[in-house]
């Protein structure tokens, strides 16, 4: 489907990697968006693009590529800043009148899944940081891939993006998949006693650009 909900097929070159399976208007507390659902070929996971305004052939489109975080996005967990970042991104896009949040399912826990993330939280309560906890579980620190996000942006027709992120790895991966990242826009959220350790580890071990002591 294109931005107006008409049927289309997502391809990059000749390699079709997903079906664009559904699209509808979606009124939200940030105003009206169009929601698009994408399903990778042969998978059951459903990714989402929340689109505001016309994106086709546009330069410098505001984009948030957001990794699913059930605890933060849905339940308002204060262990991380995901929910706050998602809300801030939707608000900023609404204010600009144009942009998209690409919401990546299957990215939970930086790719290790919900149960493993919760196991990691338990280890964090025993003093490990977010990186050490994954390693203690015998799991990689971050196995997220952004190819599908790049294809979704291609399907929406954006020419270049202003990416709302603090994560340089995400920027590089998207660029490696052919997305023209014109600018990075920091997504700064409030530090609390609950998330300060998580944010500090992101800054010190994962290279996130977070400007605090
Ligand atoms: N394994 C693990 N994953 C976590 C933890 N806290 C949050 N996450 C996951 O981390 C993902 C969010 O990634 P982050 O590294 O926080 O941020 P980012 O999206 O890479 O970068 P930004 O664009 O700057 O937000 C979500 O999928 C969360 O479920 C944790 O303690 N352990
Ligand atoms: Zn989170």
Unreliable spans are: 1-14
The number of distinct β-strands equals: 8
> How do the strands of the widest beta sheet line up side by side?
1-2-3-4-6-5-7-8
Which structural class matches the secondary elements? alpha/beta
Shape: globular
Q: What CATH architecture label applies? A: 3-Layer(aba) Sandwich
CATH fold-level label: Rossmann fold
Determine the mean pLDDT.
91
Please, what is the CATH homologous superfamily? GTP cyclohydrolase II
The CATH class designation is: Alpha Beta
Query: Which small-molecule species are bound to the chains here?
Result: guanosine-5'-triphosphate, zinc ion
Number of domains: 1
Q: What is the alpha-carbon Rg in Å? A: 17 Å
- List the total number of helices: 7
GO molecular function, one term: GTP cyclohydrolase II activity
Function: Catalyzes the conversion of GTP to 2,5-diamino-6-ribosylamino-4(3H)-pyrimidinone 5'-phosphate (DARP), formate and pyrophosphate.
Active site: 142 (proton acceptor), 144 (nucleophile)
Family: Belongs to the GTP cyclohydrolase II family.
